[in-house]
Amino acid sequence: MSLWRAIVMLLTLKCDHATHLISDNYQRNLTGVERWALRLHQLSCRYCRRFARQIQRLHEAARRLAANDVRLSTEARQRIATSLDAGMDAGRDSDA
Amino acid sequence: MNEATRTFAGQWLEAYGDKLYAFALARVGGDTALAEDLLQETLLAGMRGYKAFRHKASVETWLIGILRRKIVDHHRQRNRRNKEVPLDMFFSTRGHIKDVSAWGYDASQVLEDKEFMETLDACLQDLGAPLAEAFYACAVDELSTEQACSLLGITPTNLSVRLHRARLALRRCLEMKWFRSP
């Protein structure tokens, strides 16, 4: 990134871009300029500070939700066991 | 297919059946019949593919990988709603975010609340498959960008855009349906 673009980013980062960086931060390391631009923005933007916090909670909740402890019913288990015993049933060979 | 592989599959069903089922169920909107089918297909595919399994990962991880792929394929085959989530839902024309209210709840408290979890589930359903899949892959299952892109068949840029929108939409949905309702 050119110096000029870095300065522009530091000074003009808006919420749309800031929230995108907050999101990207979970997937990759932000560049130094991105990190500083985000920090500067969040100093003055309460909404983006909240956004970052709430996203963190959202993740925790979604993980909790996905880790539900439902159990396979006995009937379904039996049915699946039978079909496994039969091996590859007709019409299912294609997607091996 | 020999007897030994069949026995394996039976053991997988015993050992990982509940876990795989729960994994599928959360990702297909609570459709139990569909989750059972996906589990069955996964175990059958595992039986067929066991020879090629290199034991780099645990059997459980390997089976989860197969199942995850089956779920994505299922969503793809179904006439999937490509729900538009335009950014102007969230930002003004000058790029300022629209109201983000304080949730004012203790995070741990919310996590114990069954109704909150149901609301979140509904919001995830509402998201539409492309965004929901990206969110599950990265935010819930914590796949790397590379793994998620290969699973979903999209570029890193595209993934980043989907994740941004998914987070915006989910946050908004929770705020509307949960935190603001009396």
What does this 3D model show about the protein?
The complex is a heterodimer of chains A (96) and B (182). Chain A is an all-alpha fold and 96 residues long. Chain A has one domain (3-95). Chain A has helices at residues 3-12, 15-24, 32-44, 46-66, 74-85. In chain A, helix 2 crosses helix 3, helix 2 (15-24) packs parallel to helix 4 and helix 3 packs across helix 4. In chain B, 68% of the residues lie in helices and 0% in strands. In chain B, helix 1 packs across helix 3, helix 2 (32-49) packs across helix 3 (59-77) and helix 6 packs across helix 8 (156-179). Chain B has 182 residues and is mainly alpha-helical. At the A-B interface, helix 2, helix 4 and helix 5 of A face helix 1, helix 2, helix 4, helix 5 and helix 6 of B.
Relevant terms:
heterodimer; A: 96 residues; mainly alpha; 5 helices; 69% helix; disordered C terminus; B: 182 residues; Rna Polymerase Sigma Factor, Chain: A; Arc Repressor Mutant, subunit A
What is the element layout, followed by pairings?
The complex is a heterodimer of chains A (96) and B (182).
Chain A: H1 3-12, H2 15-24, H3 32-44, H4 46-66, H5 74-85
Chain B: H1 3-27, H2 32-49, H3 59-77, H4 107-111, H5 114-126, H6 129-140, H7 145-152, H8 156-179
TL;DR of this structure?
The complex is a heterodimer of chains A (96) and B (182). Chain A is mainly alpha-helical and 96 residues long.
Number of domains of chain B: 2
Largest sheet of chain A: none
Mean pLDDT across residues of chain A: 88
Radius of gyration of chain B: 19 Å
Gap from first CA to last CA of chain B: 58 Å
Number of strands of chain B: 0
What is the CATH class of the largest domain in chain B?
Answer: Mainly Alpha
Examine the coordinates and then state which fold CATH places here, giving the name of the CATH topology of the largest domain in chain B. Answer: Arc Repressor Mutant, subunit A
Uncertain ranges of chain A: 89-96
**Tertiary shape of chain B:** elongated
The protein's oligomeric status is heterodimer
Strand-pairing-aware structural class of chain B: mainly alpha
Task: Count every helix of chain B, treating DSSP H or I runs of 4 or more residues as helices.
Answer: 8
Using only C-alpha atoms, the radius of gyration of chain A works out to 24 Å
Unreliably modeled segments of chain B: none
The CATH architecture name of the largest domain in chain B reads: Orthogonal Bundle
Strand content of chain A: under 5%
Helix-strand string of chain A: HHHHH
